[in-house]
Design goal:
30% of the residues lie in helices and 23% in strands. With 392 residues, it is α/β, with parallel strands linked by helices. The strands form 6 sheets. An 8-stranded mixed beta sheet has the order 12-11-8-13-16-17-19-20, with helices on both faces. Strands 2-1-3-4-5 form a 5-stranded parallel beta sheet, sandwiched between helices. Strand 16 (316-323), helix 12 and strand 17 form a beta-alpha-beta unit. The longest helix has 15 residues, at 376-390. It starts with a strand and ends with a helix. Its EC number is 4.1.1.36, 6.3.2.5. Residues 180-388 form the DNA/pantothenate metabolism flavoprotein C-terminal domain. InterPro entries: CoaB-like_sf (IPR035929), CoaBC (IPR005252), DNA/pantothenate-metab_flavo_C (IPR007085), Flavin_trans-like (IPR036551), Flavoprotein (IPR003382). Residues 3-134 form the Flavoprotein domain.
């Protein structure tokens, strides 16, 4: 039986895309379509069943109740696409004067908001205040809009996600990893740099895609998430919970700052195994290069995962191993040497690819789990499901 969810469409230019999202959702869910008065000015609703009135009939029996109560009791999720400035302001301040805001008010389950508006409205401090208020309830997921060309013709933040992008996020958020919900999680990903001189360095071909997919899922399926990341294909922003580092030593330092407070630690970063021993603390001038400066000497680099394993107390420690083939004898040696609870072995062919094929080794029962090749977003689901099912 399909889960029933509510798709709430508020007024705004992006409402014109909402029926496409509705059709995508119907493949996996039983969808109640709830439309505000202003949304009807942007969409065609012929041949569609929808709700747009609070009370659409007379009530002569005092024991009857409104449709908003029935809808809320039967559903498991609200999706607001698009979420206008006005609609966000109403629900944040307890105003429930139409069917859409009433459904939100009576729901005790999650609501996913897809804001869409002019960038001046999105950056308005009043909207920021309302956003913070909604997020503090614990039942609201706020999906940032895109930066791009807006209906006004200007460039800025506030552009609605495309329906297929919203659908993907909804599917991801609909997964429940119950054993992760109350856990503090520390995740690293991306690649680090071994510097040759002040401006040149050695790195690898990791894109950081695998770690980013894990981050997306963990953001809404954990008590708290701290990420420490190196270089990634798409640059990321730093904030109080997301830290950028360049080298293995910086990675270890930042991981240790958060390690002892973490329940689960997932190390998917592609760190260098060897670093430059004869580093020169200035740019090597091309015309002044000598034979010595052209010879790079390598030494064993700091093994972040191994150091974390030495200090492990109560943490569930998960590592990644990149290999040319699935040599499980070598993999089990890594599990023991690095004091891991789980090791995810993937092949070097996954570098910069959108797909991956993995094997997972579980230390507690010496079990090996095989997964078929799949896209990295699907592999991320498999990894987190395995962690969820095997926590001590």
């Amino acid at each position: 039986m399909k889960k029933q969810i509510n798709l709430i469409i508020s007024g705004g230019i992006a409402a014109s895309k909402s029926i496409e999202l509705y059709n995508l959702l119907k493949k996996d869910f039983e969808v109640k379509l709830i439309v505000t008065k202003n949304a009807k000015k942007f969409i065609k609703l012929e041949n569609l069943e929808y709700i747009d009135e609070i009370f659409d009939r007379d009530f002569y029996d005092s024991h009857h109740y409104g449709d908003h109560i029935k809808i809320a009791f039967e559903s498991t999720l609200n999706i607001v696409y698009p979420a206008s400035y006005n609609f966000i302001g109403k629900i944040a301040n307890g105003i429930s004067d139409d069917i859409a805001s009433l459904v939100f008010a009576v729901s005790n389950y999650n609501t996913i908001l897809f804001p869409s508006m002019n960038s001046n409205m999105y950056l308005n401090p009043i909207l920021t205040k309302n956003k913070d208020l909604l997020l503090s309830t614990g039942n609201v997921h706020w999906v940032e809009p895109k930066y791009g060309k807006l209906a006004s013709g200007h460039e800025g933040i506030g552009r609605a996600l495309e329906p297929f992008e919203a659908f993907k996020i909804i599917k991801e958020l609909n997964y429940e990893f119950k054993n992760l919900k109350d856990k503090d999680i520390l995740l690293n990903f991306g690649k680090t740099r071994s510097y040759i001189d002040k401006v040149r360095y050695i790195t690898n071909a990791s894109s950081g895609k695998m770690g980013l997919e894990l981050k997306k899922l963990l953001k809404t399926n954990s008590k708290s998430l701290i990420t420490v990341f190196g270089d990634t294909l798409n640059p990321l922003n730093q904030d109080d919970n997301n830290f950028y580092v360049k080298t293995n030593n910086e990675m270890l330092e930042k991981m240790l700052e958060n390690y002892y407070y973490s329940d689960i630690v997932i190390c998917s970063a592609a760190l260098y195994d060897f670093e430059v021993e004869n580093y020169i603390d200035q740019k090597i001038e091309k015309r002044a290069m000598s034979e010595d400066s052209m010879n790079i000497k390598l030494t064993e680099a700091t093994d972040v995962l191994k150091e974390l394993g030495k200090l492990k107390t109560n943490q569930y420690l998960v590592g990644f191993s990149l290999a040319n083939d699935f040599d499980l004898n070598k993999a089990w040696v890594k599990v023991k040497e690095k004091n891991l609870d789980m090791l995810i072995v993937n092949l070097s062919s996954a570098m910069e690819s959108d797909t991956n094929k993995i094997k997972i080794l579980l230390a507690k029962n010496n079990e090996i789990i095989d997964f078929d090749s799949n896209t990295k977003d699907k592999i991320a689901l498999d990894i987190l499901q395995t962690i969820n099912d095997n926590l001590y």
